[in-house]
Amino acid sequence: MHQLKFEPSTAAFGAAHQRKHPDSLLLASNGEKMSEVIQDFAEPLLDGADSPEEVKKALVIAMVAWNHSLLQEAGEPGLGGIKSDLLADPTVRGVFESLVERKWALYPDNRRFILDYELIPSGHEYRFNVISTLGSPVGKDVRSSLPRKADSV
User: Fold this and answer.
1) Residues 46-87: pLDDT tens digits?
2) Residue ranges in 1-153 assigned as alpha helix (H)
3) What's this model's pTM, rounded to 2 decimal places?
C-alpha cells in the first residue's frame, strides 16, 4: 500500500484555493486534520490501490461519499441526477452506501464538507492535503459553502 504523507506547510495549496475561490476565508484548524480523517475513512478503498491513479480514485470516491452523506442529512438531494447514473451499477452502489454508513459509524459528529484537496505522488508516498469547512454551514442552503464548479477528476 502507498503511504499518504501529511505536510504541515500547505501555504501554496491554500493560496491556489484562495485564487480559485476569492470569497472564501481560510483558517488553520486546531482540531482533527481532515486529510487524516479522509485517509482513515477511505482505508477500505485505499487497501486495494496499487497506482497513483487508483489512490486518487479511492480518495475522490471517499470524499464524494463523505459530502453526499452530509448533504443527505441536511435534506439536500446530494448528488441528484449524477447519483442515479453513478449508482446504477449494483457494485458501485454497494461501495458507495457502505462508505456513507462508514462515515456515520466512524465520524458521526464531524460535519465538515470537503471543499478541495491535493494529492502529489512522490515515490511510494503522497502528499495529501484537504481544505474543508470548519463545521456545518449555517442556514438552509448547504451548497452555498461548496465550490461553484467541481474540478474534473
Assistant:
1) 998 888 889 999 999 999 999 989 988 877 765 655 556 666
2) 11-20, 34-41, 43-46, 52-73, 81-86, 90-106
3) 0.73
Query: For residue 150, what is its C-alpha cell?
Result: 467541481
**Is the separation of the CB atoms in 87 and 96 below 8 Å?**
yes
Side-by-side strand order, sheet with 3-5: 3-5, 125-132, 114-122
Distance, CA of 71 to CA of 64 (rounded, Å): 10
Q: Rounded to whole angstroms, how far apart are CA atoms 43 and 130? A: 16
- Radius of gyration, CA atoms only, the chain: 15
Q: What torsion, rounded to 10 degrees, do the Cα atoms 17, 18, 22, 23 define?
A: 90
What is the three-class DSSP state of 105? Answer: helix
DSSP character at residue 153 = -
Distance from C-alpha of 140 to C-alpha of 98, rounded to nearest angstrom: 27
Place of cell 442515479: 84
Predicted confidence at residue 149, as pLDDT, reads 38
The count of C-alpha atoms lying within 13 angstroms of the C-alpha of 124, restricted to the half-sphere facing its C-beta, is 4
Cβ 137 vs Cβ 64: under 8 Å: no
Where exactly are the structural domains of the chain?
3-22+31-136
